[in-house]
Amino acid sequence: MSGQSEVTTWIAKELSWLSFNERVLQEAEDPEVPVIQRIRYLGIFSNNLDEFFRVRVADVRRLAAFSPPSKQDEYKALLEEIRQMVMKLQHRFDAVYQENLKELRRRKIYLVSERQLDETQTKFVREYFHSHIQQELVPIILDDANPIPELNDASIYLAIKLSSEQQTRFALLEIPTVRLDRFIRIPGRKGKHGKVLIALENMIRVCLPEVFRGIFPMGETAAYTLKLTRDADLELGEEVTHTFVEKMTQSLKRRKKGDPVRFVYDGAMPKDLLEYLVKRLGLGRLDSMIPGGRYHNSKDFMSFPNLGPAYLDNKHLPVIPVPAIDQAENILSCLREQDILLHYPYHSFNYLTDLLKTAAIDPAVKTIKASLYRVASNSHVVDALLNAVANHKEVTVVVELQARFDEAANIALSQRLTDGGVNVILGVPGLKVHSKLISIVRQEGSVQKYYSHIGTGNFNEKTAKVYTDFSLLTYDQALGDEVAKVFDFIAYNYKRHEFKHLGVSPLNSRERLLGLVETEIRNAKKGRECGITLKCNNLVDRELIDKLYKASSVGVPVRLIVRGMCSLVPGVKGLSDNIEAISIVDGFLEHPRVYIFRNAGEPRYFISSADLMTRNIDFRVEVTCPVYSKTLQHTLQSIIDLQWADNVKARILDASQSNVFKPRKKSAARIRSQLLTHKFLSTGKLPRMAKLEYRPRLKPKPVKVKVKTKTKK
């Protein structure tokens, strides 16, 4: 082609997201992963897919319906590509599910259907049905004269066909998994060893005639599972006023009536029942109708019980103490001596709640401010903030009511805080407050001093046990002053503060990020040390990606560790030769954002609440914070080095989205970064591994590239 090549330089974020979910499915396929955890990965895969349809597919569907005619075909084609990828993944899911059931059977753990029960087990199931299940069931008899009630898209349903000599009736029955466990242990077969589980819907199938309490004459009865996924978009006005809670409440009600975007059903469902449901539910040509197996809502596998020995599940890693805090008089006195970087779940989230509880009872503490996006249902963080009010502190809390799928919980939270005397701020008009900040003001002599928290994850005890995240606790007064200014911007968003240290979306994050990349470009051109490492959940912002392509083209080595969506394509000759990208999926969900710039031999380190997405950079309140402590910089660099060296759970991101595992030489030691991070934080020791090198590279000879851009939004 005489110097020209046709390549992809942009991957649609929806397709990249499906590639991420394939990496989750790979974990469910991996025989080295303990079998109970493999089953739970099936649940994570299914839960992810639910949200994908509720949010991302719903968005593309709207674009396909309402874009200008010249663009509609692009989005329709993207919808079809999504459907095809989902179907392939679903087939793999079904095969993995069957293989994992076989593995459970080898371990004498059985998940049985109603067809496999012996007489004793059937008797137990019938007794259990009448004592625990029947009172929870509310069947809906379908008829043409009345609309089908709105279906809950968090639930699964049995579509039931009741046949008698007189007529055929159809009914729907919601499976009450909110009130009852999905998987219930029953006695084993008589004379057989083993532990037996049955799904709740199969217990109902055993007693299907009793569901209808003898009202209808019945010949044959049959039940088929289905699941409906709805558009999760909330229509909200821009103004945040005293009526905002009412608007959010109404929007949540509208969500329950959102347009269907996916209909998954048992492939064995009779044609007459399927056609009736499709017609009555108003499913159209832009909706994904996906035939599947007998079981849906596999997200319930996330809580699948381990009935066998402990080794069938992931090994529990002990929490690592932080001696600097433990040996100090209290956590505030510790911070006066040094900055602390907590890394969850390796460190305990209790250190964070201890900070708030200590501040709540310290007579010298005057004010506490915090931003809450998602909190645990019984939050010790909230308890500490309410305790601070009881101890006569002035407490201000920013509650983000638009935290997707936590809106109802945050409405209740805001009311509880208000009732407890907390000054509650309900976000910023037109922006989501996604920053993870705490500002504590303490009177010390004649001056007031700041104690601050800047983090990458939510103030949530539950997720802090399974998400990796960073919390920076600091007495740095310059940082503390700017954290206080962020809270002032949230309260009075017409004010414009200067930020020398923090990157604050939507005020200066884009300018700051692009400027940092541009500095590395200048260093490369001057032959100075240069290099960029970005660890994030998602990289899809077009302007930043183009800037990274520019950096690569002049010789800047760029290393990307991206858990989820990555629209950038590494390795394109003449464009991204110097960009490498990996994704790590392991027992903990990788959630931190860490940005490192070599800066001519004086590296700059940042942690951030913001992903590299346009919405985070321009349309949310986010904070990116420099880490100035040399000790903490070493800790961050060591953790990133471990991740880059991972040759067990790291996949290579490339144009083909093949998700191949990073190759490991036979003689090379196994580097599983999450386990070795735990060891490093416990002992300070790192394994032998190749360090990340940041040398200026020769500018590659440019190649003319004919860009073939995939659909993007």
Automatic annotation (TrEMBL):
Which of UniProt's keywords are assigned here?
A: ATP-binding, Kinase, Magnesium, Metal-binding, Nucleotide-binding, Phosphoprotein, Transferase
Needed cofactors, names only, are: Mg(2+)
Name all Polyphosphate kinase C-terminal domain ranges.
331-495, 502-674
Q: Which InterPro entries does this entry report, sorted A to Z?
A: PP_kinase (IPR003414), PP_kinase_C_1 (IPR041108), PP_kinase_middle (IPR024953), PP_kinase_middle_dom_sf (IPR036830), PPK_C_dom2 (IPR025200), PPK_N_dom (IPR025198), PPK_N_dom_sf (IPR036832)
Q: Which GO terms describe its molecular function?
A: polyphosphate kinase activity
Q: Which domain of life is it from?
A: Bacteria
Q: What is its EC number?
A: 2.7.4.1
What positions does UniProt annotate as the active site of this protein? H434
Q: How is it modified after translation?
A: An intermediate of this reaction is the autophosphorylated ppk in which a phosphate is covalently linked to a histidine residue through a N-P bond.
Where along the chain is Mg(2+) bound? R374, R404
What catalytic activity is recorded?
A: [phosphate](n) + ATP = [phosphate](n+1) + ADP
Matching HAMAP family:
Polyphosphate_kinase (MF_00347)
Instruction: Identify its protein family.
Output: Belongs to the polyphosphate kinase 1 (PPK1) family.
Q: What does this protein do?
A: Catalyzes the reversible transfer of the terminal phosphate of ATP to form a long-chain polyphosphate (polyP).
Q: What is this protein called?
A: Polyphosphate kinase
Record the organism.
Zhongshania arctica
- List the gene name: ppk1
